Amino acid sequence: MAFAPEQVFTDEACSERVFDEMWTANWWWKIQELLPKGATIAPLILSSDKTQLSQFRGDKKAWPVYLTIGNISKEIRRQPSAHATILVGYLPVAKLECYSEPMRSLAGYRLFHYCMSKILEILVEAGENGVEMVCADGRVRRVHPILAAYVADYPEQCLAGCCMENRCPRCAVKPDDRGSPVMSVLRDVEWTLKILDEHKRGQEPPQFERDGLRAIYQPFWRYLPHCNIFACFTPDLLHQIHKGVFKDHFVKWCTTIIGEAEVDARFKAMASHPGLRHFKKGISSVSQWTGTEHKEMEKVFLGILAGAVNSEDIFVKLEIQEHFNIPKLHSIVHYVDSIEALGSLDRYNSESPERLHIDFAKEAYRASNKRDYTEQMVMWLQRQEAMWTRGAFCAWVKDQQGLIDGERNNSGSESLSEESESESGAVPIPTPTSSAPLYAIEKKAPFKNVTIQCLAVDFGAIDFIPALTTFLCRNIPDINAYAQPKFV
Ligand SMILES: [Zn+2]
C-alpha cells in the first residue's frame, strides 16, 4: 500500500518518467497540493455496471456499485480473493412505469444521481476535512477519501457525466467531429454546473444544447470535494480497443479488403512461436471472442496483413468506411491524459466489475428465494463478509503464532515475551499445547458404500470401530447425553 505520491524515472537524470501505479501519476500530486500538510489521500475508484441476474429470466437485474482505493497496488486489486474491492450498494433497477413515456428516461437518470449522492454523501465532509483512520501498517493518518476514477461502460459514463450518448463524456467535441484527431475543450465541473443551474431556472442557455447535456440538476458529484467527474472516466481497453476498435471495426474492414478465406489462410499459415497462439482453423470459425482471444489476434494481426494490403490509408478510397466518426475511436485521444493522471490502464478495465458480479450479485441472487431478492442478497453478502473477516482474523492470529514460535525456537522462550512486547507493542499470543493433526486422504474413495463390518472383516481394520467411538466421544462431548454410539 502507498500513502503518498511518488515519481518514478527510468534513469538517474530523471529524463524519462514512468506512469504505472496510481501513486506514480499526476492526479495524486495535484490533489495533495490542495490539501493541508500531512494529509493522506485515499483515491477512490468507483465502478458501476448493470447486470442480469439470471440467464433465463431477463427482467431480473442488479446494478451494483463497487469501491476500491488507489492506495492498494494493482496486483492485489486484481485478485477477487484479496477482497480489495467492496460492494457499496445496489442501485434500483426500476421500470418507472408511473412516469409518462417521454419523462421516463429522464426520471431514471435523476434517480441514478439521487441514489449515488445518497451512497456517497459521507464523502463530502470526509473528503474536505479528512478522517482519522488506522491504516494497514498500524499508523493513524488523517485520510481524505476523494473520488479519483469511475470505471463504467460508455452509456454509464454518459449517465454519470450528465451528457447525451452521442457525446464524449470527457470533452465537448461536437457529434460530427469525433472522427478527426483533434483535442476539444475538456468538460469543466464549474461550467457544467452553471449551465445546468441556468437551465433549471428556465434561462435556456445555448451551451446546454451545444455541450449535449441532460437535464439532471443534482448530479451526484456536485458537492464531492476536489472531484472532476469528467477526468474520472478511465479508458476501457476491453470494450473500446479490443472489442470495439479492433474486432468491430478494424478486423471487419480488413476482412472486407482481403477476403475471409485469405484471412483464415494467413492465420493458419502463421508460424507457431512461444507466447503466440496459433489459430489453426483461422478466425472466422471463432464463435466466442473473449478478451484473451482479441489480444492473441492483435499480436499477429499486423503480420497477417503484411503484403496483403496497400500501405496507404485506403479504407475510405475503397469505400469500405465512409467516415471515422466513431465514439470508440475518439476515446483514444484521451488515453494519454488519463494515463498521466491516473496511471496505467490495466486495472481500469470493465472486465473487473464483470468478474465481481459473480461474487457480489449472481451468487447472492442464487442464494435468495428469487422473490424480493435485493434485501436477501444484501443479508447474504453481509454474512459472507463477516465469515471472511473472521477467517482473515484467524489466519492472522495463526501467522502471528507462527512468527512467535519461530522466534521462540531461535532465541529461547524467556527473553522472547519481553522483547516482542517492547518492540511491537503486541502481547504474544499463547501457543496451544498441541498442534492440530494433519490428515492426508484420497479425494475419491476407491470402494463405495462399504459397511463397517466389511472394513474389519475384508480389510482387517479391526481398530476402526473403537477408534471411531473414541473420536466421536472426544470431539462431540454431548454425544454421551444421547446414547453411546454402537456400531453393528
Ligand atoms: Zn472526448
Summarize the SSE layout with pairings.
Layout: E1 8-9, E2 17-18, H1 26-34, E3 40-48, E4 51-52, E5 61-69, H2 74-77, E6 86-91, H3 101-120, H4 122-129, E7 131-134, E8 140-151, H5 154-160, H6 189-200, H7 206-210, H8 229-232, H9 237-258, H10 260-269, H11 291-305, H12 327-331, H13 335-342, H14 351-366, H15 373-411, H16 413-424, H17 452-459, H18 464-475, H19 479-482
Parallel strand pairs: 3-8
Antiparallel strand pairs: 1-2, 3-5, 4-5, 5-6, 7-8
Bound molecules: zinc ion.
Brief summary of the model shown:
The chain contains 19 helices and eight strands. It has 488 residues and is α+β, with helices and mostly antiparallel strands.
Task: Characterise this structure.
The protein is α+β, with helices and mostly antiparallel strands and 488 residues long. It has three domains: 287 residues, no CATH class; 87 residues, no CATH class; 50 residues, no CATH class. Helix content is 45%, strand content 9%. The chain has 19 helices and eight strands. The strands form two sheets. Strands 3, 4, 5, 6, 7 and 8 form a six-stranded mixed β-sheet that branches. A two-stranded antiparallel ribbon has the order 1-2. Helix 9 runs parallel beside helix 11 and helix 15 packs across helix 16. The protein starts with 7 loop residues before the first strand and ends in a 6-residue tail after the last helix. About 5% of the residues have low confidence. The site of zinc ion has 6 residues, from loops. InterPro entries: Plavaka. Pfam families: Plavaka.
